[in-house]
Hints:
- This protein is mainly α.
- Helix content is 70%, strand content 2%.
- It has a two-stranded antiparallel ribbon.
- A hairpin with a 5-residue loop joins β1 (8-12) and β2 (18-22).
- It is globular, with a radius of gyration of 23 Å.
- 47% of the residues are buried.
Amino acid sequence: MAATGSGRSQFISSSGGNRSFSNSPLIENSDSNQKSWKNFFAYLGPGFLVSIAYIDPGNFETDLQSGAQYKYELLWIILVASCAALVIQSLAANLGVVTGKHLAEQCRAEYSKVPNFMLWVVAEIAVVACDIPEVIGTAFALNMLFSIPVWIGVLLTGFSTLILLALQKYGVRKLEFLIAFLVFTIAICFFVELHYSKPDPGEVLHGLFVPQLKGNGATGLAISLLGAMVMPHNLFLHSALVLSRKIPRSASGIKEACRFYLIESGLALMVAFLINVSVISVSGAVCNAPNLSPEDRANCEDLDLNKASFLLRNVVGKWSSKLFAIALLASGQSSTITGTYAGQYVMQGFLDLRLEPWLRNLLTRCLAIIPSLVVALIGGSAGAGKLIIIASMILSFELPFALVPLLKFTSCKTKMGSHVNPMAISALTWVIGGLIMGINIYYLVSSFIKLLIHSHMKLALVIFCGILGFAGIALYLAAIAYLVFRKNREATPLLASRNSQNVETLPRQDIVNMQLPCRVSTSDVD
C-alpha cells in the first residue's frame, strides 16, 4: 500500500485492514544534510503531549499548597525540577530516536524475567498513581460546576473514559487543541491575577534562585512538587511517542531529530514552568496578603483544588469557580490521554501485551477510583486533596526505577544523538538522578524514624514496625543499587550499522496503532 500524499503515513490497523492516519513524515531524503527549520514542525507533538503531565491537577494541588503555606520559598523546586525534566525528557526522546525502541522495550531486552516483571509492576503503579489526581481533580470540577458531592464525582469519573473516547472520532489533534485551549485559558487568568495580587518581584526571584527548606513539612511538600513535575511514566511515554515519527536513518538525520526534539521539549516545558510559577506566586501573594478576609484566610489554611477558585475572583468575578472548574476538568481529561498512552506503551514494552485503548484506560481508572472513593467518603474534600499529595510523593519514590535504566541505556546507546561531550551529559544526568534519589531516601528514612519516635504504640509493636519498615527501606535501596551497579549487556546502537537498508523504518506501526485513531476519510485510503 502506498501513501496518497507526502503528509500521510500508512499503518495497519489491529483488525488487519489498511488505514491512513494523519502523521507527517519528517524528512524524505535521509542523505540530505540540509538543516531546514521547516522540518521542525514535523517533529512537534510528543513534547507538548508529555508536558500536559506538568500542568495536571496534581501539579495545581501541590502548587497551591506550597504557595499558601510557604509563599515563594519553594519556587526553586519548580526551577530545578523543570531543568531536570528537560534533561531527562530529552534523554528519553534520544533513546527512542537512536535505538528505535522505547524505554520499556529496552528493559525487556536487558533484564531477566523477574526484574523485568517487577519493573513493570512499579511502572503500572506509577500510571495508577498519576491517574489519582485526575480522578480527584475531575470530581472537584464536577462539584464546582454542578454541586455534586466529591465521592459521587469520583464514581462519575469512570464515565469520563467513555466520553473521551466518544470525542476521539472528531480527531485526536482537534480534541487536544480544545483541551489545551481550556488549560491555557486558566493559565492566562493566573497571569492576569499576578497583576492584581502584585507579588514582590524580589521575593519571587529570591524564591526561585535561593534554595531553602524550613521544616519537615516543607521537605514533604518539596518532594510532592518534585514527584508532580518529574513523573516516571513520562519517561516511558516520551521515548515511545518519538517512534510515531518518520526519522531518516543517518547520523545527520538522527542529530537533527534529537536537536529538534530538545527544542520542542524546551518550549513545552517552559510553558509548563511559567504556569506552575504563576500558580504558586498567585497563591503565595493572595494567601499571605495582610487584608485577606476571614473566609479567604480559612480557605488558605486548608487550600485544595475545591477551594482555590477564589484566587481568580479579581479576574473573572463570580464566574471564577466555573472557569476554574472547566479548566480543571480539561486538565484532568488531557492528562487522561497521556496516562492511556503511557499505560499502553508500558504494557506492550514489558510484557508484549496490547489492550484496546478504552479497556486500558478503564482498567487504570478503576484502580485509581478505589482509593480515591474511600478517602473521599472518609475524609471528604480535604482528605481527597491530601491523597493527591500522597500520590505525587509515590511518583517521586518510584522515579528511580525508570530513571536509572534510562540513564544506563542512554550513557551507551545515544551518544550519536548528542552535540556535546557525552561524558558531560552522562555525569550531569547521574548527578541529577542522584540528588533526586538522595532527597527521597533522606525524607523516607527521617519521616519513618520520627513516626516511630512520636508514636503511642507499645514498645514491642514499635520494634516490630521498625524492623518491618527498615527491612522495606533496605529492600528499596537494594533494588535501586541492583539497577545502578548491574553491568548492562553490550548493545550496538541502531545507527552503528552501515547497512541502513536493514534498519527498521520509522514510524513504528505498532506504536502508532496504539494511539487513539483519527477519523478516516475515504480520500485517505488507497
